[in-house]
Amino acid sequence: MKLNEKPTALIMIFGATGDLAKRKLFPSLYRLYKKGKLSERFAVIGIARRPLSNDEFQANVKNSVESAIKDSGELEDFVSHFYYHSHDVTDASSYLALKSMAEELDTHYSLEGNRIFYLAMAPEFFGTIAEHLKADGLTDVDGFKRLVIEKPFGHDLESAKQLNKQIRKAFSENEIYRIDHYLGKEMVQNIEVIRFANAIFEPLWNNRYISNIQVTSSEVLGVEERGRYYEKSGALRDMVQNHMLQMVALLAMEPPIRLTTDEIRSEKVKVLRAMRPLEGERVKEYFVRGQYGKGSMSGKQVPAYREEQMVDEQSNTETYVAGKLMIDNFRWAGVPIYIRTGKRMAAKSTKIVIQFKDIPMNLYYQTEQTLNPNLLVIHIQPEEGITLYLNAQKSGQNMEATPVKLNFANKGIDGMNTPEAYERLLYDCMRGDATNFTHWDEVALSWSFVDKISDVWENTKEEGFPNYESGTMGPKEADQLLEKDGFFWWPVTDLDVEEC
Ligand code: NAD
Question: Is 48 close to ligand 1, i.e. is its CB under 6 Å away?
Answer without folding.
Answer: yes
